Amino acid sequence: MITACCQQAAQAGVRADMPLAQARALFATPSVRIETHDPSADAAALYRLAVWAQRFSPVVAADGTDGLLLDVTGCARVWGGEERLLRAVVDAMQRLGFAARVMIAPTLGCAWAVSRFGSKRACLVSPDSVREALAPLPTAALRVDGAVATQLGEVGIERVGDLLELPRSTLPARFGSELLLRLDQALGQAIETIEPVRPVPPAAVERMFDGPTDRVEAIELTVRELLDEVTGELERRSCGARRVDVELLRSDLGPERLTITLGRPSQNAKHLWQLLRPKLERAHLGFGVEAVRVCACVAAKIRHEQAECDGVAGDASAAEIERSCGELLDTLRNRLGEGRVLRASLRESRLPERAFEMRDASDTGSVTAGVLMSDRPSVLFDRPSPSEVIALTPDGPVHRLTWRGEEHGATACVGPERIGGEWWRAHPTQPDRTRDYFAVRDERGRWLWLGRGVESGRWFVHGVWA
Amino acid sequence: MNRAGGSSRIAFESRPDSPELALRGGLHEWFGADDRKRGSAWLPPMGVLIGLAWRVAGSATVPGAGPSRRVVWVGRRCWPYPPALVRHGPDGADRRLLDASVFVDPASRQERVWAVELAARCAGVGIVIGDGSELAMAESRRLQLASKDTPLMLARPSREVRELSAARTRWRVSPLAMNETENDRCQEWAVELLRCKGLRPETPGDARRWVVRRDHGTGWSTSRSADQIEDTWRAWSAGDGGVAAAVGDGPDPASRTQIA
Q1: Cβ contact (<8 Å) for A358 and B103?
Q2: What is the pLDDT of residue B227?
Q3: Which of A146, A224, A462, A465 has CA atoms 20 to 30 A from the CA of A126?
Q4: From the CA atom positions of chain B, what is the Rg in Å?
Q5: What Cα–Cα distance (Å) separates residue A416 from each residue in A380, A391, A451?
């Protein structure tokens, strides 16, 4: 079933609730992009947008699956008038890539109706033109049930204007009290409240000193106590910190900020302290620190896991192994720096130097299958070292070779294995795109991986089975 | 008798039966067969170290059962070529070692020693393989204490073979020359136990040399005693559940065993 489609598709005749096959048949070319509908991802994105929209108004609510409600009472002054506010919202939405319809109206019901059924993409309804704005809209714009709207249609009431002309007292008897309520809400005669989103502020604690202090012990003790408080708060929220900021507010200088990032969420104060301590030792305290603030800026949920109880005595459980590994990787990364603690995965390439990829150890992204090549040396040189080779016949087995100033006789030679250059990623600095590789055993019994550029004819040792 | 636990002194006093001795907790030093010249490039005995790492990564879990204990490679010189960590068996490729591997690249010698020690103390690490060049005696003592429960392999250049250290064992790996009639894609290393704490001095009947053999075509490794006088052939699979055991008798090359 089709849930939503773009404007182009709508012009071609695609409608919501249409079977996919029927929608496909409307297009001559098969190059139609189809995405699976994911309602929960939509809801999450709408929530994020609602949090973002708090820059325009403190009261923001997600409305249904595709709308945002902002209570802008009193906010327009900050923006210099309602029209400017309207323009700011339209511009900001456009920058985010949303084709939004924006409406400011005195009542919530009116704004809802005009934004969804009105003709303009953005407009402003003044308090005394609510009736005029609503009158030309279909009755469905009043947020009534589909059944009620059909009933209204049966008796010839298509527009809200027709409804407004009828005497109020006759309406509830025929169409139920909901219609009257919705009508009153649109006209501003009934109260309607919105339930705003309330993002949880990050766990943060702050402590002031009596006066500026440059005693490291006092600051360390304070940071540890604050860490305990923050992790206690995280535990109550069943969250773990992914990033922790420690701010030292100094008396005559700007605040000193120490940041640690974690590969997996943690609520272990001891672990966080171990990561922070080397940074705190290097921190510049200036003329003294007046206050310390600890904030778990980025937090993530920690899944509760059942403790092992199947009696594997003495052996650390899988969760325990995972936890200690995560802490090890965090400690290594925070001290050694980014890009120094890595994982390897294979890549879709037959070129030896491109067959693998080093990624950050915390990166748990998808792993490609890679090209599996058996019989690869255990050590590959970053830079192939040049070598001179004597072969008995051209393209024949290697007979003798000189490498690193020493001459070796070859007692066995397996190859060649031709590895074609990846012409689609032409690299000017690498002339030998297509190469022949030989595995050569020297008289000491060591196997070397010899390569030869097919175009240049140059020989090099690329790896060793060390 | 607690063979695998902390008090492995008793076990060590018995006859060492294979290079798997190094898989007990403690600091083990490995010397390659490189040039002794100062400043010349040296290579760690990667083939044997990968084999030992396989014993840790391959024994813990069945394939696909989630990550096992990590294998930590410290120091860029001790990083193996990642595709060499995938083993090609009869049932397809086995990536357990590659998935369990963590590569650490410390900027300085101090950071390298610190990273090795931290990894060796971590309960989730199965084996640490690191670059141990220019290791001081005090540091080696510290690492030996840190690695009580985790096997810690440090590769060192052979010019440092005379340096003092507190390592539990010391090994030398050197390639063995093979004659041309041998199987085309075979490689043999002689693995020599140079020093072992708490072990009797070497006696004629107790040779501490083994041959680790790797068939590049199939990727399986076996091992036999290098002492041609010795009666018993010993097998050591560098990967798959092979246990050091006498699997034949007589130095007849035909009885050389491959454990699958």
Answers
A1: yes
A2: 38
A3: A146
A4: 18
A5: 18, 12, 9
CA-to-CA separations, A305 to A227, A266, A421, in angstroms, rounded: 24, 14, 49
Q: Which two tokens stand for residue A202?
A: 């990050």
Q: Which of A366, A376, A378, A448 to mutate to test the interface with B (most CBs of B within 10 A)?
A: A378
Question: What was the ipTM of the complex prediction?
Answer: 0.75
- Give the residue among B191, B209, B190, B208 at the shortest CA–CA distance from B199: B208
Cis peptide before A394 (omega within 30 of 0): no
SS3 A144: coil
For the sheet with B169-175, list strands across it: A356-360, A341-346, B101-104, B70-74, B125-131, B151-156, B26-31, B169-175, B186-196, B209-215, B221-225
Q: Closest-CA residue in chain A for B180?
A: A411
Q: Rounded CA gap, B202 and A370, in Å?
A: 48
Per-residue pLDDT tens digits for A455-465? 888 888 998 88
Q: Which range is least confidently modeled, A215-219, A289-293, A394-398, B182-186? A: B182-186
Contacts A–B by Cβ distance under 8 A = 149
Find which of A308, A315, A321 to mutate to test the B interface (most B CBs within 10 Å of its CB). Answer: A321
pLDDT digits (tens, 9 = 90+) for A293-328: 999 888 888 776 555 454 444 445 677 777 888 888
- How confident is the model over A333-340, as a mean pLDDT? 85
